[in-house]
């Protein structure tokens, strides 16, 4: 059975309502609304929701997971002197610039700072959590020579050899022959 045809199983404490072209999902962590085109059929039967198409299926499934469990993105700051500090409504980041950067969170997003170099961005809206993490990463993306910057926790930064390494390889190969 294709994924889009499977019913979405609602967890305990999660309710789904359809009004006109909006599906409202309520749960222990909050409430989300998902706009649905008129031609897409959504059927709610007890603790199961059946959706007619794939994208809308994923949006409603993510909303049900968000209001019951929430979503998390983890970031790491790599570099000497790079650190994060939580403020009242956002983060204060030292990223090697001449000044600290103040980052304010959108409504519905919270963060934890572990050891000044690890960030956990949390929220119930998967898209908003990922977008906020991407905006923070964009402040200082990881560079390929020394690996400094802000990276996702599971991201692997491909490293490049620097000028010195290239010069050594070039010198060894240029021995010349007579």
From TrEMBL:
Alphabetical list of InterPro entries matching this protein: Ribosomal_uL6-like, Ribosomal_uL6-like_a/b-dom_sf, Ribosomal_uL6_a/b-dom, Ribosomal_uL6_bac-type
Species for this entry: candidate division WWE3 bacterium RIFCSPHIGHO2_01_FULL_48_15
GO biological process annotation, one example: cytoplasmic translation
Entry's family note: Belongs to the universal ribosomal protein uL6 family.
One of the record's GO molecular function terms: structural constituent of ribosome
Pfam families: Ribosomal_L6
Large ribosomal subunit protein uL6 alpha-beta domain location: 12-53, 78-152
One of the record's GO cellular component terms: cytosolic large ribosomal subunit
Ribosomal protein recorded as keyword: yes
Name of the featured protein: 50S ribosomal protein L6
Keyword Ribosomal protein: yes
Function: This protein binds to the 23S rRNA, and is important in its secondary structure. It is located near the subunit interface in the base of the L7/L12 stalk, and near the tRNA binding site of the peptidyltransferase center.
Stretches of the chain forming a coiled coil according to its record: none
């Amino acid at each position: 059975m294709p994924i889009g045809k499977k019913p979405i199983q609602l967890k305990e404490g999660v309710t789904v309502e359809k009004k006109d072209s909006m599906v409202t999902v309520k749960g222990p962590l909050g409430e989300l609304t998902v706009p649905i085109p008129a031609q897409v059929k959504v059927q709610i039967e007890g603790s199961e929701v059946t959706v007619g198409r794939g994208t809308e299926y994923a949006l409603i499934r993510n909303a049900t997971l968000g209001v019951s469990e929430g979503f998390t993105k983890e970031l790491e700051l790599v570099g000497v002197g790079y650190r994060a500090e939580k403020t009242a409504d956002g983060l204060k980041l030292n990223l090697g610039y001449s000044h600290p950067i103040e980052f304010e969170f959108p409504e519905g997003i919270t963060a934890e700072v572990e050891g000044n170099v690890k960030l956990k961005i949390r929220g119930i809206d998967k898209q908003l959590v990922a977008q906020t993490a991407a905006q923070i990463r964009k402040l200082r993306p990881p560079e390929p020579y020394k690996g400094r910057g802000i990276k996702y926790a599971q991201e692997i930064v491909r490293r490049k050899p620097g000028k010195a390494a290239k010069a050594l390889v070039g010198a060894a190969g240029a021995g010349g022959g007579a």
